[in-house]
Please model this.
Amino acid sequence: MKNRKVFIHIGWPKAGSSTLQKQVFNKLDGFRYLGKTPFEAKKNNLTFNISYLLNYANENYFSDNLITVKDEILRHEKLLYGNINNDVPLIISEEGILTGLIRPVNYFHNGVGVSSPNKLFQRLSILQKTLNFDLQLLAVTRESSAILHSFYCQMYHELSLINRLNTFDKYIATGVSKNVRMDLGFSNLNNKKLQELASLHLNQNIYFIEMKKLFIDDYVMLNEWHPDFNSRIKITKKENVRADENNLKITHLRPIWIKKVSVKRLIKNLIRMIKKDFFPHRLIKIKIKITKKQQDMVNDFIQK
Model:
């Protein structure tokens, strides 16, 4: 039985992903795009779960949950299209798959690190074999510095809270340094190395295309990207553009998917911050009690 062809758009972030997800993939005839609804986390479970398993899950968790990915993919397909048709190729888009290679995770005094590209492609290979898929990996490239500039602006609310990353100058300086405990993944932006890993583990290439060659005027040139795509798609606008002028980009103190804090919660947070920073430790002891129900939940979970 022939393996089902599954196209996975893996990134890079800040390279037209939102435009592809909102205006392009759903217009391709002869394919079934499984969709992604930005900024509504509950609707993104499929792509978020895939990205998490590939980038962050430990080995046992990855193995134990891998088969559920196929069930989730097929359930999603049936929900969107009314049936499951293995003869029609699927398209999945999650730029977070490559984002994990440059998204710092704060391990506090132990340092800051990103996901491993070698692990990522090993797991893609396992996913392909286990789920009987013929994976076709798609990626959009642009100048590395442009990706990092836009990525920092998007993630400023998160990165600015990490020591040595609270300004863009520090972010760049730290990323190019040789500090053992501060790996920001800049070297992972080497697409040639990623291509080598794809060839090693998947015995195939990643279909890379430069952003400026994919997006031309009001069209997305899909026919230049993959031999199975034979069309170009007209778009109305480019999504999530952050550029202003003279290499300036716009960021936010709070991402748009996080709701604003109520006045009551703001006051509560201010009081907590003042206590935390200025009160003696003996005055800010916090008692945390575990209930019998919580104990049973943990014990039952471990014993399963």
